[in-house]
Every structure is written in C-alpha cells, then in structure tokens.
C-alpha cells in the first residue's frame, strides 16, 4: 500500500545549525504515529516542514507516492494536510461552526452570502461522529472548556484533512477526564482512514493511541518501533540516549 | 455551567436597546411638554445623527478587525471640502465620487501603513488625523466652501422621497448593506476572525494583510460619505466638519456592542448607539441645562453605558 | 479655546468693517450701518408690562464656551429674567457649523420666541437659521450675519464689541502712562483673525494719528502665544530704551511680562486687551502693566436680549449695535471686572489692590 506521506532523507539546517538530520518516515492511512523526543529534539521543526511553514534544506517529500513540494501552509491544506496547533488557532469570539469553516466558509446565492445552515448542519454531524461533547455548535469558543476547544480544533482538522492530521501536544493543558475525551476523539479519527502524526510528551498516551513510535534526539532519528512490540523502557532509553 | 453561556452574548447585545428605550422613556416623561416627542424633534435626531451613524458603521469593521481609526473625523472634513470644491466646477456626481474617493484614499493610506509596515493603527491614524486635518485647512484656506447644486442638496441633505427624508433613506440603506456585509459575507467573517485571533486567521488561509487594508479603507470611505451628507445638510463644507464626532462615534459603537479588542461587533447596535448619543444631546438641550452640565451628564451616561455593555460577568 | 481672544474670531467673520483710513475711526456694520451704542437699546417699563403673561421663551445658541460667552449669557439671562422670559435652551457648537445647525433644529422643537446666536459661517448659518426666521423667531446675532439675511425681515440686530474703541483706548492708556512721548513696541496677532486684526490696527492708527510724540519703533507679529517671551526678549535686546509695549491679548502679554521680569526691567510699560488674573495682579501691584482694555460682555448680552425683545414687540431696533470698551487700571479694577464680566475680580487681585 502506498504511504500517504513519505519523508525521505530530510535535512534541515538553520544558518549552519542542524535541526533535522536524515529523517525518513512513511505514514499510512488509518494509522497513528507518535513523534517523541525531548525538548529541542526537532519535533516541531518536522511538523513545520510537513505543514509547509519551512521547506527542508534537502530531502524528498512524497504525497501518495508522488514527489511534492509544500512551499506554504495553504498548499499543505490544499493537499489535505491539516495541523492542530498547540494554541489551537481558534477565534474565541466566534461560534463553533464558524471556527470549523474559518477561512473556508461556504457561500450561496448570487450575493455569495454565508451558508450558515450548511455550516451548522455539517458541524453538527461531525461533532456527533467524533463524539465531541459541546453544548451547541452555536456556542462561542470562549465559553467552552479547554477539552471542548481541543475537540473543536481536532474536528476542524478532521473535516478538512484528506490525507494527514498533525497534532501538536493535543492534551498538554488538559485534566484527566478531558484528556480521555480528546483521546477518544483521536481514536475516532482512525476510522476516517486518515494518517495521524501526533507529538506528545506523555508516553502513557503514546502507548494508548499510537500504532508506531518514532523517536528523535537532537535532530537525529533514533528509530521507529511498532507500539505493540516495544515498551516504555526501550522508548525512554531511545529518547534519553541512556541505556 | 456552559449551557447558559451562549445567552450572555445575546443579553449583552440587547443592553444597548434597553438603554435606548430607557433614555427615550425618561426624556418622554421629563420633556413631555417641551417638544421632545414631536415628530419634528424625533426626525431631527435621526437626521442629525445620520453622518455619525455612517462613520460608526465603518468603525464597527475597523474595531472588529482589531484595529482603531482616529482619523475618520478629520477625513469627513477633507472629503466634504474636496467634494464642495469639485462641485464648484463640475457636475455633482463627480463631486460625490471625489468626496468618497478622497475618504477611501485617505483610509487606504492608513490601511497600507498599518497592514504592511505593521505599525499600530492607533499611532498611524493619530498621525494621519493631524495630516488630514491640516490638509483640509490648507486646501480650503480656512474658508467655508458653499454647496449650491440643488440636486445634490436634495439627494444628500434636505430632500425627501415618498415623504421620507433622504438622510433617513441613506441611513437605512447603509444599515442593510452594512449589516449584511458584516454578518453574512465571508469578508465580514474574516474581519471578525482577524480581530479575534490574527494567528488563527493567518493559518486558516485568511489574508490578514488584505483585511486590515480593507477595513481602514472602508472606514475612510464611510467618513467620505459622511462628509457628503454633512455638505448636503449644511450646504457648505468647512474644516471643522466631523472633528467633534470622533468621541461620539467611538462611544456609539462601543455602547452598541462592538468590542474595542476586536472579534465582535454589531451594525444595528452601532445605529442604536448613535441614535442614543443624538437623543442624549437633544434631550439634555431641551431640558434647558447649561452647556457644562450637558457635557458632564452625557459623559456620565456614556460611562455607565460602556461599563454595562463591556463588563464581563463572573464566570 | 484657551484664549479669550478667539471667542469671536471666526475665520469667515467678515461682515463688519472699519471705515478705511484713520480719519473716520469707528466700527461700522454690514451694508454700512452706523453703530448704535448698546446703552440706547433698552426695554422700557411700559414695554416690559406689555410682555407680562405672554410666556415668551428664548434660546441661546453659542458657537463655543468661554469666559466671554459666560458673561454674555449672564447679561442676556438677567435681562430675560427681568422681563419674565424663560431661557429654555443653551448650546455650544464647539465651532462646528454642522453642530450649530443641529442645535438650531433642536431648539426649534421648543418654539422659542427669541434666539441669540453667533452664526459660525455665513453660508451654513443661512441654511440653519432660515427656518427659524421664517417661523417668526426674533433673531439677534453676535458679530456675524448669515448670508443674505435682511434686517427687520429676517433678523432683529447684530450686536458686537466696539473693536476700534478697544484698540484706541489701549493707545490712550499707554500714551498717558509714558507721558505722551517716547518709543513703543507693537506686538500684533500675526494671523487673519478679524477681531484681533481690527483691535491691533486701531492701536497703531491711534498712536500715529493722535500722539505725534510717540513712535512705534519695533513691530513683531505673534502666532503662537507661547513664544511671546522670546519675542519680547529679542525686541528689548534691539530696542533697550522702549517705554512701552502693546501686546495683542492677555495670553502673550503674560509671556511679555515674564520677559521683562527676567531681565529686571521695571520701566517698560505694558498694555493689553482682555481681563486676565496674572496681568491684573501685576497691574495692581504697580508692575509693568499700566492698563487692560476689556469689552463689556455682560452689557453685550443684555443688549442682545433687549434687541430680541424689542423686535418681538415690533419696535424699531437699530441694525447694528456695539457694546462699549472699557479701560481697566489699578484704580478701577474691582469695578472694571464687574462692569465687563459682571462678577467679582479674582480675590488675589482684590487683595493686592487693597
């Protein structure tokens, strides 16, 4: 099966300082891959390369097996890659459904007026499918809890992604119950046959959610393991470099 | 906990209408024998506030995008002077276009500096306010320029259509167009998104720079049109037009439920806020108060209204 | 407006004119009307009795707020009160003709019998006041006239300060203080403002025509009152023997005074226009200031009210009325304040005078 996204020998340097060194990874539809590593290991740089914020210094990106360049974030979106940023990138004063369609609002009629009915209907069905529990799709973001906001951000990425969803620390700011809800939402994404790349500091979470684990340390790719065939000790050893 | 929250925005949006009704009832009772409730007086309030209302509509877009415009009052005078000067020689329609064009151009300069140089709009428009006010004085030589074209005066000043004053019709037209553009178009949604969270707007593919340019240009064009309405009403243009409207219009917009911090606003609220400010001035004059007391009471009521409409309830 | 000088200084204030040349030195009205002293415009007891029970009302629609406007308002209000007329509205247009139009419209809802106002701009005011004129309201204007308004048909009268007399009295008081001989400096307002220009020129004309022993040896224009101190410094540097200086109004006169004090000069005399506490204080303490010429703002307001009432009674009202000028010196400072503004002089001035 052709991977949705292939990264081949990606290098990235910033003014002579190497941020990513020879990184290769295949992501397949319907799988969750976790990207782990200490602070400064290069996880965020990698996300930015995939989402079109920074181009790689060298190396190849393949989408559905075809060589592709992702010169900016809007091209990434056009190609079906969506990012859930750590700060969620939600507009706080706007209702949930407007956030779901932020920048991509459907219009109708000769006056090209907003098609609110369609936005609301699509948001409602998506929220239901992903089981994101919010009071109403008309609720304003600022009136939602942190977990609910995360749910909305993930739902938005899901709605627009056709290939890949990147999740950057999706539960970092959440309590236990809310983390569980967000994890349930992420699990529900797999059913949509998307590839999911998740950055997380919580190894427990990584083991609960992922199919594979990719470890980075100081820009170097230490290795990729099938989650089912590894354990926390091995992953910690890979992250820290201590055996 | 969360279920009741969506109502809060709705309630806050209604405050301006409640305040309007409250003040209206107060004046109706206090001034029942002093002309407040006469048709002429009530229509005066609407006519007198028409230019300020148009400025307020422009400002709703600017504030919603997280910017501010302090120069619109000065632009009003410049646009009126340009329109009146052009109309000395040419057909009034050319004067109209020149007036609105001048406003839009001045606004576009604001917008270009704010959007591309990323300087704070507060400082940029503070500076351009001075430049535009100086320009208005310079090109008019501090003189008043008469407006004599009767068609222009009828359409933008004292005329009527089917018995309805033209300024009322302009206000209604601006209300409908402004409200739809603000609430029901992608442009309006993007304006709110940019003011709400510029980074989120940017990563969502909204052209933030273009929105900032657009709202300030729009505000300038609205100020230009307000200048046209003043020129039609006063039948002359002078550098003082619009200068005293700055604070009134900002207050009207805030009282009308538009956040100074961006992301949320209301065009009908701005209309009601503007009418409320006009009604306040009118009622306080009719009460026979001295000018100093009129100023103090007006300031106090605006303070209360702004406090009530902006206060965050405990969460 | 921080300086009282701008109170009537509206850029388009052009209806008044001084007759050309020094020979005919007096203030004349539009269409060449000769001035009638305000003291001749009064409402008699019989006329007042005729008004009783009519329930007349008046509105005062001013251009701005200032000491001067307050004094005019006080004069008008007292006169109206004496005649049993209620002042139902008072407004300030803050020099904005659109606001003035709104103020007229608003006041008309109260259907006043009389309106007193300073029309900001002849063209805009013509549109603003026309409906009031047609509704039969007696209109009395301060200093300015709406375009194409006809006396008696459209308005009752124009009332203004006797600008020429103010400048002339300033020349007289300075001449007397320096014994009719010597060299003086002339600091004029270097901007096109009718009120200051007329007063400044009247001073100069009077010195040149009436005081052959006095010569104006230094002239300096002033646009920014804050720069008066350096201008006077420079003037005295070049003309150390100046006997006196005329300063266009009290604001810059305070700067001139600071300059003289700074160089320890107690000989050079100052004369200026418009009442001001620091200037009056120097004067009563025997400092450089020898006189202040003021207008009778209170009397001006009274005359406006009286003109409006007379017009309403279908009496003849002179078209152009002037309120007198008044020279205030250390000897009459308490009375002068009363006469001009109808209120007590500042206590610091009164204390120093006693």
The average pLDDT score of chain B comes to 90
| Largest interface, C-beta closer than 8 angstroms, per-chain residues | B-C, 35 and 35 residues
Report the portion of residues of chain C in β strands.
15-25%
CATH topology assignment of the largest domain in chain C: Rossmann fold
Q: Largest sheet of chain C, described in full?
A: 7 strands, parallel
CATH class of chain B: Mainly Alpha
Briefly note the structural class of the backbone of chain B: mainly alpha
Which overall shape of chain B is indicated by the principal axes computed on the Cα atoms? Answer: globular
- Count up the helices of chain C: 12
Q: Shape of chain C from CA axes?
A: elongated
What's the level 1 CATH class of the largest domain in chain C?
Alpha Beta
Mean pLDDT of chain C, as a whole number? 88
In a few lines, what is going on in this structure?
Chain B has helices at 6-30, 39-64, 72-89, 92-117, 121-140, 150-158, 166-184, 186-196, 198-203, 208-234, 245-255, 267-286, 291-310, and strands spanning 145-146, 160-161, 164-165, 236-237. By secondary structure, chain B is an all-alpha fold.
């Amino acid at each position: 099966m052709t991977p949705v996204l292939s990264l081949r020998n990606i290098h990235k340097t910033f003014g002579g300082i190497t941020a990513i060194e020879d990184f290769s990874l295949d992501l397949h539809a319907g799988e969750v891959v976790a990207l782990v590593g200490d602070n400064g290991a290069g996880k965020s740089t990698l996300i930015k390369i995939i989402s079109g914020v920074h181009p790689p210094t060298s190396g190849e990106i393949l989408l559905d097996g075809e060589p592709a360049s992702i010169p900016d974030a809007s091209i990434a979106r056009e190609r079906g890659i969506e990012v859930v940023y750590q700060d969620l990138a939600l507009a706080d004063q706007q209702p949930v459904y407007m956030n779901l369609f932020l920048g991509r609002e459907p219009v109708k009629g000769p006056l090209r007026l907003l098609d609110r009915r369609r936005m609301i209907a699509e948001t409602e069905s998506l929220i239901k499918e992903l089981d994101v529990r919010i009071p109403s799709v008309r609720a304003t973001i600022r009136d939602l809890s942190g977990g609910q906001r995360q749910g909305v951000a993930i739902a938005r990425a899901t709605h627009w992604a056709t290939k890949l969803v990147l999740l950057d620390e999706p539960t970092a700011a959440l309590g236990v119950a809310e983390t569980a809800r967000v994890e349930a939402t992420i699990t529900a994404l797999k059913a949509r046959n998307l590839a999911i790349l998740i950055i997380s500091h919580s190894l427990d979470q990584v083991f609960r959610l992922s199919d594979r684990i990719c470890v980075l340390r100081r820009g170097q790719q230490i290795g990729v393991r099938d989650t089912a065939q590894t354990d926390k000790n091995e992953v910690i050893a890979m992250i820290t470099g201590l055996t | 906990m969360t279920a009741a929250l969506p109502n809060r925005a709705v309630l806050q949006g209604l405050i301006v209408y409640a305040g309007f009704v409250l003040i209206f009832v107060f004046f109706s009772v206090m001034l029942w024998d002093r002309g407040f409730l006469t048709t002429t007086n009530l229509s005066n309030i609407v006519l007198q506030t028409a230019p300020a209302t148009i400025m307020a509509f422009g400002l709703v877009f600017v504030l919603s995008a997280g910017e501010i415009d302090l120069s619109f009052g000065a632009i009003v005078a410049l646009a009126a002077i340009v329109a009146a000067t052009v109309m000395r020689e040419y057909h009034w329609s050319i004067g109209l276009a020149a007036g609105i064009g001048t406003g839009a151009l001045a606004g576009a300069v604001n917008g270009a500096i704010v959007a591309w140089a990323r300087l704070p709009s507060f400082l940029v428009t503070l500076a351009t306010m001075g430049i535009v006010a100086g320009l208005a004085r310079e090109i008019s030589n501090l003189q008043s320029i008469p407006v004599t074209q009767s068609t222009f005066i009828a359409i933008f000043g004292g005329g009527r259509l089917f018995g309805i004053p033209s300024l009322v019709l302009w206000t209604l037209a601006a209300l409908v167009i402004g409200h739809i553009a603000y609430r029901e178009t992608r442009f309006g949604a993007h304006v709110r998104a940019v003011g709400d969270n510029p980074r989120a707007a940017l990563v969502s593919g909204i052209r933030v720079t273009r929105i900032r340019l657009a709202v300030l240009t729009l505000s300038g064009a609205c100020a230009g049109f307000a200048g046209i309405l003043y020129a039609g009403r006063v039948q002359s243009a002078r550098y003082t037009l619009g200068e005293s409207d700055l604070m009134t219009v900002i207050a009207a917009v805030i009282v009308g439920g538009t956040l100074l911090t961006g992301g949320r606003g209301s065009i009908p609220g701005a209309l009601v806020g503007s009418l409320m400010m006009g009604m306040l001035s009118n009622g306080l004059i009719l009460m026979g108060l001295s000018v100093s007391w009129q100023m103090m009471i007006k300031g106090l009521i605006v303070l209360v209204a702004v406090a009530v409409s902006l206060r965050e309830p405990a969460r | 407006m921080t300086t009282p000088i701008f109170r009537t200084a509206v850029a388009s204030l052009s209806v008044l004119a001084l007759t050309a040349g020094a020979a005919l030195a007096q203030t004349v009205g539009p269409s060449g009307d000769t001035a009638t002293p305000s003291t001749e415009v009064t409402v008699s007891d019989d006329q007042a009795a005729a008004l009783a029970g009519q329930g007349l009302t008046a509105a005062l629609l001013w251009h701005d707020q200032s000491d001067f406007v307050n004094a005019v308002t006080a004069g008008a209000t007292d006169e109206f009160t004496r005649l049993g007329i209620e002042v139902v509205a008072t407004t300030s247009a803050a020099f904005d003709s659109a606001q003035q139009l709104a103020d007229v419209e608003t006041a008309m809802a109260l259907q006043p019998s009389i309106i007193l106002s300073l029309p900001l701009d002849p063209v805009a005011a013509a549109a603003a006041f026309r409906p009031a004129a047609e509704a039969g309201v007696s209109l009395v204007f301060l200093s300015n006239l709406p375009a194409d308004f006809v006396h008696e048909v459209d308005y009752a009268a124009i009332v203004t300060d006797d600008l020429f007399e103010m400048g002339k009295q300033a020349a007289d008081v300075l001449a007397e203080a320096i014994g009719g001989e010597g060299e003086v400096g002339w600091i004029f307002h270097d901007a096109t403002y009718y009120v200051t220009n007329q007063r400044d020129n009247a001073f100069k004309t009077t010195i040149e025509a009436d005081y052959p022993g006095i010569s104006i040896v230094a002239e300096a224009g002033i646009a920014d009152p804050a720069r008066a101190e350096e201008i006077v410094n420079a003037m005295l540097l070049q003309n150390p023997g100046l006997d006196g200086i005329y300063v266009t109004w009290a604001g810059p006169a305070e700067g001139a005074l600071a300059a003289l004090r700074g160089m320890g000069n107690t000989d050079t005399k100052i004369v200026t226009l418009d009442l001001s506490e620091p200037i009056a204080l120097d004067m009563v303490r025997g400092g450089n200031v020898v006189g202040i010429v003021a207008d009778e703002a209170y009397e001006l307001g009274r005359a406006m009210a009286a003109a409006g009432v007379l017009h309403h009674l279908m009496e003849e009202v002179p078209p152009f009325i002037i309120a007198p000028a008044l020279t205030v010196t250390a000897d009459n400072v308490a009375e002068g304040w009363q006469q001009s503004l109808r209120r007590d002089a500042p206590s610091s001035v009164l204390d120093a005078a006693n």
